[in-house]
Task: inverse folding
């Protein structure tokens, strides 16, 4: 692992994680190339900023649950190959019900060169510290649909409020949101803005 990359929980203890791409619970329906361990990795700068976000969330009785951080380029390459395979329908209803696999890239839900691969982007949500229940956000992680956009219509008031709270927490700690995905944030002052890494998560 690059010397400036760390396991996020070692720098920001108290965050929860469920590295979806290391499991069968993701839009490809199987563990993804490069994810050899269910851990979240990121730059030290990302991890320190997430420590700030953790503290800010705690002020509201909330915690952070991370789904993805650093993503090896080989994982992105496997997404591209998967998008060209025949549709089997296994994950379509949950993750991309209204588009085709091949449209994920042109619509901005998956990138050929992903900010995740630079090490300072994270996918995450909020949960209630008292109950452990995830905050209602209107969609699950990686639903590639307009309802996942920050300004989506048709979600409940509580869900919209929770999205705004997550955004406020993350922006106060130096992150920028992504319009198409309410869960996706990139560190504004990322240390490797032009470098795409490919070491595995192990």
Result:
């Amino acid at each position: 692992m690059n010397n400036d990359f760390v396991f996020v929980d070692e720098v920001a203890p108290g965050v929860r994680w469920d590295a979806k791409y290391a499991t069968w619970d993701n839009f490809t329906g199987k563990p993804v190339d490069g994810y050899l361990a269910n851990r979240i990795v990121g730059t030290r700068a990302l991890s320190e900023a997430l420590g700030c976000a953790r503290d800010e969330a705690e002020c509201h009785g909330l915690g952070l649950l991370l789904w993805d951080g650093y993503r090896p380029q080989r994982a992105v390459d496997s997404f591209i190959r998967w998008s060209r395979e025949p549709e089997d329908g296994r994950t379509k209803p949950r993750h991309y019900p209204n588009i085709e696999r091949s449209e994920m890239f042109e619509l901005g839900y998956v990138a050929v060169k992903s900010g995740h691969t630079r090490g300072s982007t994270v996918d995450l949500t909020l949960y209630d510290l008292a109950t452990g229940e995830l905050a209602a956000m209107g969609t699950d992680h990686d639903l590639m649909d307009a309802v996942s956009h920050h300004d989506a219509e048709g979600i409940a008031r509580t869900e919209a409020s929770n999205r705004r709270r997550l955004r406020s927490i993350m922006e106060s700690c130096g992150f920028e949101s992504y319009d198409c995905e309410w869960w996706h944030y990139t560190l504004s002052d990322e240390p490797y803005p032009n470098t795409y890494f490919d070491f595995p998560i192990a």
About this structure: The chain has one domain: 5-187. The helical segments are 8-11, 44-58, 73-83, 92-95, 103-106, 157-172.
